[in-house]
Amino acid sequence: MKKGFTLVEVLGVVAILAIITMVATPSIISMVKTANSKMKATEDETIIVAAVKYVKDNPNHTNSSNARDYDLTQKGSVIKVTASTLVTAKYLDANLLLKSSYYKNYYQVDSKGVVTKDSIVVTITVVDANGSITTTIAP
User: How many domains are contained in the chain?
Assistant: First the structure.
């Protein structure tokens, strides 16, 4: 008596595995996309919180766009802070940006630790005289 599987049994197992793969793949892809989206939202929030703290702690910061001091009580004031400013002032760890699946394309450092690319800018807009603000982040 021969030991082993028949061709029909092997094909049956392969067919079942193919069906399981077809059913599972879309949900796995969806879970990965959701996780990446949540990770980016968390990174955004971390960068924005660092920028707001930096702005509150450094009232003499000047915007590179208009080279004047801003006023957190002046409605309409717009403050722009780059990621490299936050890293230099130690409000943000560069590794967050360098290891990020999204921001690593917008923030790069050479082998000597010198920033070679920084297109990440947090814009803080003062909404009213009480210091209410809105924030946006753009690479």
Answer: 1
Its pTM surpasses 0.85:
no
Q: pLDDT tens for residues 78-105?
A: 888 888 888 889 998 888 888 888 888 8
Q: Domain range holding 106?
A: 7-138
At a CB cut-off of 8 Å and minimum separation 6, what does 102 contact?
36, 39, 40, 43, 139
In a domain, 2, yes or no: no
